[in-house]
Structures are given as structure tokens and as C-alpha cells.
Specification:
Elements: E1 5-9, H1 16-30, E2 33-40, E3 52-53, H2 63-78, E4 86-90, H3 93-103, E5 108-113, H4 119-123, H5 126-133, E6 137-142
Parallel strand pairs: 1-2, 1-5, 2-4, 5-6
Antiparallel strand pairs: 3-4
């Protein structure tokens, strides 16, 4: 079975480019549609309920949000991801990644994994949570700590 819809989850870390490039390469190999998701969980937005997909075209007064939008749009353009396959979501990364994947028939999620050990491993990570809750395949790209 070939993948038809691949979604890369990015966080704008230094390693995100490695993750998106792997997703782009897989989409090319399989002839799959490529989507991109970024979960906002570090910007205060008290009036916005968790799980809200943020418009990439409507301007707001929130400078932090506007900066995140611009970074996200730039990455999406570099990867040739069409507008309908771009999701900027305010919420919990573990929940929103799997929710958007389910809603959009994604059959492979590509995201980064820090390969934590000890207490961090016991508490879990976004990659681990997505791996255990996704209804599709998950590729966790190893992120090496510098």
C-alpha cells in the first residue's frame, strides 16, 4: 500500500527542516499529497478555545501570532504545500495532530522525536503520544541533541 496523504508536523526548531525534507521526499516517492501542521501552544490566546484552526489570511493584533503565521507560510511555500493542506492550530499538540490527521484522511504523520530517557520518557512526549493515538502510520524522525 502506498501513502496517499502525508502530514508533517513542525515546531520551527533547528531540526524542523530535516523533518519537512523527509516528509517532502516521501511524498515525492509515493506521489502523495503533502500537508503541514504547526500547533500553537506557547502563545497566550485566552479568547481562543483549544482546537481552533487559525486563519492564515486574517490579520490580528497579536504580534506573536502574526510572526508564527509568517514563519509557517514561508515553510509551506518552500515545500509547495497548497493552502488547503496547511493547518495552524491553537491547542494541545498530542490531540490536535491526530485530530487533524483523522479529519483529513492522512495516512502518514511525520514528526520529530527527541529520544528522551529517564523521567522524560516516563512522562511521554508529543511523538510518543501521537504514535499511540494516531489511526495511521507515524514516522518519528530522530532529533539529535546538539
Amino acid at each position: 500500500m502506498n501513502y496517499q496523504h502525508i502530514m508533517a508536523s513542525i515546531d520551527f526548531s533547528a531540526q524542523s527542516q530535516n523533518i519537512t525534507q523527509k516528509a517532502k521526499n516521501l511524498a515525492t516517492v509515493y506521489g502523495a499529497k503533502l500537508s503541514l501542521i504547526h500547533i500553537l501552544d506557547n502563545i497566550p490566546m485566552p479568547q481562543v478555545p483549544y482546537g481552533t484552526v487559525i486563519s492564515l489570511t486574517e490579520k490580528t493584533d497579536n504580534e506573536l501570532l502574526e510572526a508564527e503565521k509568517q514563519k509557517f507560510i514561508q515553510v509551506a511555500k518552500q515545500l509547495d504545500v497548497i493552502d488547503d493542506c496547511r493547518w495552524l492550530v491553537w491547542g494541545n499538540p498530542k490531540q490536535e495532530i491526530t485530530h487533524i490527521a483523522d479529519q483529513n484522511n492522512v495516512d502518514l504523520i511525520v514528526l520529530g522525536s527527541h529520544g528522551r530517557h529517564g523521567l522524560a520518557l516516563l512522562l511521554g512526549s508529543t511523538a510518543n503520544a501521537v504514535l499511540h493515538h494516531a489511526n495511521c502510520d507515524v514516522l518519528a524522525v530522530r532529533i539529535k541533541e546538539s
